[in-house]
UniProtKB/TrEMBL annotation:
Keywords in alphabetical order: Dioxygenase, Iron, Metal-binding, Oxidoreductase
Coiled-coil residue windows: none
A GO term, aspect molecular function: metal ion binding
Names of required cofactors: L-ascorbate
Domain Fe2OG dioxygenase: 205-309
Highest rank taxon of the organism: Eukaryota
Keyword Secreted: no
Family matches, as Pfam families: 2OG-FeII_Oxy, DIOX_N
Family: Belongs to the iron/ascorbate-dependent oxidoreductase family.
Name of the molecule in the record: Feruloyl CoA ortho-hydroxylase F6H1-3
GO biological process, one term: coumarin biosynthetic process
PANTHER family: OXOGLUTARATE/IRON-DEPENDENT DIOXYGENASE
UniProt key word Iron: yes
Length: 358
């Protein structure tokens, strides 16, 4: 394999639309190219990771009406902003089929994957890109991802989605919707609020899904798969691929420097609280800052579903949480403006939500 000069790596990966998967397939690198070497302060080193067993709650949701389940969910949303759910009703075989479909896409020939590259995709609701914001980042993330947008008005799957995965993607969107609704209902009830037609558009008027692909990395300690950030939407439901440890990490406390491992549990769904819920709850719930590390010996797939507002939603603390003369901690913002602020910069912790604090 002929190595690509560092000066040409970004051109090959981004502008020629090969992605980091194409880089790995084409060159089988033994060292990390300079466009991927993170500055020391952005590397998640072992001294920053809590060594105690995982502190991420695992909640059995086999009975959504159980008050204990609601209590556990609200407590986790308040303290860590992240938890895992099991016994949610989705069969393990269905989750494995979805992971296989994601891998199936990234195992397609490069020319076929390239048909879906952002800006020239054959689909209006599915597109592929690399890193996070490759045209704005000085250092790239070691990740490619295929994003899908679910449009409820279309019956069934979008015919323009890749044939290798479109059926599994459609079914997973449908399976996630009632789970997200159950969690949001519990969280809203805890704020003395209910979900009506208008608030449902704010809480989960849009649904998007990523197929994240993290290739094996020659020097993982120098790279990052996904940089530290909080999700800007309402709620994220993440499927981790079984068996790949030391990948997903969450900041243990809002202001602390320590991180905790979020281990993959077979059949579990990881639930992330997003910025929208932190804002609407006036900080009663916490959007969790998290990041993803990469592996030298194997690639990894993860599949998040993002539930969020429609673009013209106005996001602000709920009246119910301000009833006792509590001061709003955030100014109101139109969600499309909030999205724009997030996607105009590289991943940078919780900079976006901090920008609207009062």
């Amino acid at each position: 394999m002929t190595p690509i000069p560092n000066t040409d790596v970004r051109e090959f990966v981004v502008n020629q639309r090969n992605g980091v998967k194409g880089l790995v397939d084409s060159t089988k690198p033994t060292t990390l190219s300079s466009p991927y070497i993170q500055p020391p302060q952005e590397r998640l080193t072992s001294d920053k990771i809590l060594s105690s067993p995982s502190q991420v709650p695992v909640i059995d949701v086999s009975n959504w009406n159980d008050p204990h389940v609601a209590s556990e969910i609200c407590h986790a949303a308040s303290k860590l902003g992240l938890f895992q759910i099991v016994n949610h009703g989705i069969a393990p075989t269905e989750l494995k089929a979805l992971v296989a479909a994601a891998r199936g896409f990234f195992e397609l020939p490069a020319e076929e994957r390239r048909r879906y590259w952002r800006g020239s995709s054959v689909s209006e609701t599915a597109w592929l890109t690399t890193s996070f914001n490759p045209y704005k980042e000085s250092v790239l993330e070691w990740r490619d991802f295929l994003k899908f947008e679910f449009l409820p008005q279309r019956r069934g799957f979008d015919a323009t989605w890749p044939p290798v995965c479109k059926e599994q993607v459609t079914e997973h969107f449908k399976r996630m919707k009632p789970i997200a609704n159950n969690i949001l209902t519990i969280l809203m009830n805890n704020l003395n609020s209910t979900i009506d037609k208008t608030s449902k558009q704010t809480l989960m008027g849009t649904m998007r899904m990523n197929f994240n692909y993290y290739p094996e990395c020659p020097e993982p300690s120098l790279a990052i798969g996904t940089g530290r950030h909080s999700d800007i939407n309402t709620l994220t439901l993440l499927l981790q691929e079984d068996g790949v440890l030391s990948s997903l990490y969450a900041r243990a406390t809002e202001d602390g420097e320590k991180w905790i491992h979020v281990p993959p549990i077979s059949g579990a769904i990881v639930v992330n609280i997003g910025d929208v819920l932190q804002i609407m709850s006036n900080d009663r719930y916490r959007s969790v800052e998290h990041c993803v590390l990469v592996n030298k010996s194997c690639s990894r797939v993860s599949i998040p579903v993002f539930c969020g507002p429609v673009n013209d939603s106005v996001i602000e603390p709920l009246p119910e949480v301000l009833e006792n003369n509590e001061m709003a901690r955030y100014r109101k913002v139109v969600y499309s403006d909030y999205l724009k602020g997030f996607f105009e910069r590289p991943h940078d912790g919780k900079t976006t939500i901090e920008s609207i604090k009062l």
